Amino acid sequence: MASKRRRRSNNGDSGDAIDWMFTYSDMVTLLLTFFVMLFSMATIDKAKFNQLAESMKQAFFDIGIGGELFERNRGKDFMEIYDEKNSVDALVSIVNNNPVMGETDNVSESTTAGEGREYRIEDMREDIERAIVDMGLDDYVSIIEKENYYILRFNSVILFDLSSADIRESAKEVLKKVGDILSKIDNEIIIQGHTDNLPINTPQFPSNWELSTRRATNVVHFFVDNCGIDPSRITATGNAEFKPVKPNDTPENRQENRRIDIVVSKLE
39, 62, 101, 203: least buried by Cβ within 10 Å? Predict the structure, then answer.
């Protein structure tokens, strides 16, 4: 009897050992799967991710329709997609330049200063500021920096005659220089037309809506036709008198409200 009990006990111990091996194998398999997943997340296909971010931006926010997203959202809504994209870009850069991953830690030419460096939004700002000074337009053109975009503000007196949407001949050289600089970047651009609150009622412009929209549209046409800016990334909007920068209580303030704002996103 004792011999039989010992055999049963030995058989039981053997079964317990086999069960333990199954559990151990499952755990190792799960760990392997987990680390494969981590590795797949670390090796992001940057081109595919950028394409996904662009598709989501167009699907949910479509900057070509609203035209005022920069003013309304202040970088809180549609910009968040691009903030995430930029964070992933930084992650990809770290992974690709991490010696642990088998890559060199050299910084690419496009991210270093000097010759051959990629043209950036900061370069655009510097070039436009320099052009403004060179043309002596400091009193009529200004650059305003916001968190996620720049506003290049033109006083309409240098672009249009009063109650007209035709670009003045003297302004075309100015717009050509600015447009050539803007053509070096791929960022989204919105051309916003603004007027003062003085009413207009002509066959061509029944209200300030038509006047402000036509002015913005004419600037867009000029940039596309003369500066080679991709029409898919530039939008015209008319705001009439409803977004003033000063109270419409003096001739000087009304003149400041008559303007063209070129809004350039900082995010590609």
Answer: 203
